[in-house]
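request received
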Amino acid sequence: MENVVECKNLTHYYGKRLIYEDMSFNIKKGSIFGLLGKNGTGKTTTINILNGYLKPASGQCLIFGEDSQNLPPQTKTRIGFLMEGHIQYNFMTISQIEKFYSAFFPKWKKEAYYELMEKLEVLPEQKLSTMSCGQRSQVALGLILAQDPDLMVLDDYSMGLDAGYRRLFLDFLKDYASSNNKTIFITSHIIQDLEDFVQDIVILDYRSVLLSTTVKDFRDNFKQFNFEFDENMKIQLEKTDVVNNFELFKSHGAIYSFKEKAQVEKYLQQTKIPYKNLKQVSMSLEDAFIGLTGKY
Amino acid sequence: MFKALFFKEWLKIRWAGLIMLGLFFLAAAKTALNISYGIRILGANNFWGEIILKNIPFFNDYLYLPVLTGIVIGIAQFFPEVTESRLKLTLHLPLKENNILLYMAFIGASAVLLISAISLFVMGLISLTYFPSEVLWAMVSTSLPWVLAGLTGYFGTIAVFVEPIWFKRIFFIVVFISFIQALLEPSHLNFFQHSLPQFTIVTLLFSIAILFSGHRFRKGVLK
Amino acid sequence: MMVKLSRIFILILVVLMAAVTLPHYYRISFGKRVVNPMINFSPVTKGFLIGSYANNKFQWKDTNGHIYNREEADNLLPFSNYRLLLAKGLMPDSLQGKKINIDTLRYNNLFMRLRPKEIDPPGIKMFPLFESKPARLKLTMPKDFVRFNTRMEFVNARENRVEEEISKRFTTALTEQGFTFPGVKYFGNPSTRKAFDEGYFVVDAAGKFFHIKKIRGKPYCKNIVLPDGFSVRHMVVYENALQEFYGLLVNDKNEVFLLLYDQYKLQKLPTENYDAKKDQLVFRGDLFYRLTTVIKDRKIISTAVNRKYQKIAAYKQEIPASFGETAAIVHHYLFPFTLQFGIKTTYFQDFYFSDYSFTALWLNIILMFSMFFLKRYKGRAGLNRWYDFLLVLISGIFGFIGILIYENTDL
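response:
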């Protein structure tokens, strides 16, 4: 299957601060790709590089085979871009902004936009600046849907939205994606919404990529094991290739691992940890994400 | 597509432009009043003498208006673009990034020129009512450097807005203000009579300054 | 490509503005006050007396180096200080065997000055032609202003309209004198604050010279016949009670004359090395002498003649530079050139480059090579930016500031 986006060996610094090193990922045509990570791990940085607003210290992104630093106008028509915080031209009205964008995109679908606008309690003459954050997000979404791009780049669509709007947003996206083999690149820090939405994910940590996989593999292979121990025991755990992450409380703990239960048990025995009742518990995607990246 | 871009710029600058035009008209009205008062008090011949012999522009209220127009139009046009990095949306439009910036600059500069031209025309009419044509031409040649200062102010403002690095911004402000100063300081009749082409060329050097800043904006330079 | 060009333009602007600003602040920081010496000719000592500042104190000195204090000098210059001397009762009754009459003394005291910027100044080419013989004696602003086009036109100020009748009258009078329209240059004192009016002296399109006055509303037009090849550059008209001459005339050969009342004859004044485009000319006259002083950038030259215009004495003096020796040398090493928008020899604004210094090439070359130590010019990438090196080589410190601030990254 052909790749719509290919990012190779991206490294970026802000001043001397390393954001990440040697990040590579591909986005397959027709897939929904999630870039997950806590705040400050470089999600927006990646989007900026992808859109040509940032030149990485090294590495390159290709979009539709073109260098993202120099996207020709024709390629730009194929990319829909949602800015973090649903930023749009808020000095325009609902109808002005539609009129404005329609001039740029040959496949413009006016109905798609107005269909969405009808659901909002807004008038065509209303200025974006007078709308609520949720309403603005729908305007931004409507514009992208009307543009009918082959690739959608959505930078933190969830920012500032309540649950209803987030759900609405994703429902529309799902519809759109399933209809005609479109590719979506989405970043978010609210993981639970994406659970049934994204297929491929890259999880970013500070300074590096933690994981690049599919949601299915991640959920199948990444496990949480809880165990108990005596309150007055001193337990010390380290991250290893078995223990990807762990949490210790007063008398119980959790180990996050890609390994099977048997291997974890073996590891605990080897390291002479006095555990009791080791058992695998089920996780949501968000649990798994936090399990992997930690709470801080 | 450029029509749409024009529409967007128009939405941003129309109020600023109208307000500036209003200011120009106020200044014109004040000038006309001053002239008519001066003629009533001094007599027409003595008032002519003040202008023709003492070389004092009777339209000095105009001196800073074009610069102000340039800066105000520049702010109206680019403040909404740089707040929340909205310029990213603009540069994402399916046109060449440099062309987008140049076209925006062209629209803003045209607005500055148009407003200056309309007001100069009004001033010209006032001038012709009270003074011989010599005074009109002296007025035009005296106020053209002010219009150049307006353009410089505009080009400078937009480059400063787009420029991501504070140090470069400040230095650029210093550069364009010193040029504006050179254009505005000698505010006597006809001082630029022989050098308008030279000063126009230097003003035009400012016109594409936004591209270098825009380039760094796109590359996300933080230094 | 456009981005590169944009940066080059910015660099040029930085160079231009730095070439204005840096030398300007250098001058403000290190420039010294230079006061041109005052040159007088004493009827008492019959020699030059030079007033100047030495160690921040004003003093008078003669050409033999003798120093006079203020009171002594006052007595040596009775014509300029007559008011003071009279008040003190020190005014001599006679000088050089001649009895001094204060009224005669007063109207024999003459002063004219011509600065380069007064020649062809900017402004509106119209002038008021005064009534030279006003009925109520006092000069008043006429109701119309004159312009030259294909004729001589009087424009009525109140109605902003050409007065046909008087225009025709003057045009006819001028035509009869052989005037070729339009008038190209005109000289006069458009002011009512003068004792009387001598009208205007006008150079016509053919280069001929005319005297135009309005006497009781009627034209007085006279072609002044000048020697062959005499081309009037400028005239300082000086309505003075002495009525010996109309004013000071400078021709294109930088010769200086007085235009006499006596049949418009020319009386040449001795000047040395005078260049009307650059030098200031000062004419002083008193009961006994005429003194012509040429003030150049670094030199002042004064020539004294008697009332028969026979040369008596001449005096020359260097004017100190506005920079001290060290400051001047540093200036030469620092700045390859300087730029000013306005200079003292003209009112017109322009790009005036000056102070070209080849000594500054040393600094330019050093700065250029120091660029190799800047990270971004290292290695082969640096050579692709050859024009940055060229810029620094030519503009030195000005361009260097430019490339430091507007560096050449990813272009």
